[in-house]
Amino acid sequence: MGPVTSVRAPYLFDETLVAEVAAVGVARKGVWRALRGAGYCEELVESAGTVVTELASNAVRVACGEAVRVRLRPVRDEGGGVWVEVWDDQDAAPVPRPVVHSLDDIDLLPCDEVIGGWGLGIVASLSSRQEIRPTEPCGKWVAALIPCCRRAG
Questions:
Q1: Could you say which DSSP state residue 98 is in?
Q2: How far apart are CA 14 and CA 27, in angstroms?
Q3: Domains of the chain and any CATH numbers
Q4: pLDDT by residue (tens digit) across 115-128?
């Protein structure tokens, strides 16, 4: 499966992908390639790869249509960094799990609640800001700002 669209300014990466599980890996590899090609440090590259994996997984899981979209938008102000943005056709915002403070808290959860659903916490830990931006006529962008580290080279 390959991307359906190509990069458009001001984005480092902008792809519309078929809404299926394989799109997550395509998005992650595209993000890695774009950020490394633009000279970002490996810490930011890896963080953005993890964030896009989590956001794209959510988007693919909830999408009713045939596509999800993934973008990388560099930030020149606010100390720099990169917005990782993922679009799906559903209006409902993702719901984060309650914070777990210890492994004992996890032991108290029913078995069907232990697996999955931790992605938004991972996204929050790797990003400095998160946003949900509704789109018309339906859908939303879920975005996370990965703060800048020093540029490679």
A1: P
A2: 10
A3: 13-147 (3.30.565.10)
A4: 556 678 889 989 99
Kindly give the residue spans of alpha helices, DSSP state H, lying in the chain: 22-37, 42-62, 103-107, 119-126
Let me know: does 87 contact 135? Beta carbons within 8 Å: yes
Tokens 């004992």 belong to 104
Half-sphere exposure of 31 (CA within 13 A, CB side): 33
Which of 76, 84, 98, 10 lies closest to 49, judged by CA?
84
Work out whether the CA dihedral 80, 153, 84, 15 comes out positive or negative. Answer: positive
Q: Whole-prediction pTM value?
A: 0.82
Quote the pLDDT of residue 102: 67
Question: Six-digit token pair at 95?
Answer: 């719901």
Evaluate whether 28 touches 52 at the Cβ level (below 8 Å).
yes
The CB density around residue 77, as the number of other CB atoms within 10 Å, is: 6
- Per residue in 1-28, pLDDT (tens digit) is 344 444 456 899 999 999 999 999 999 9
Q: Helix, strand or coil for residue 65?
A: coil
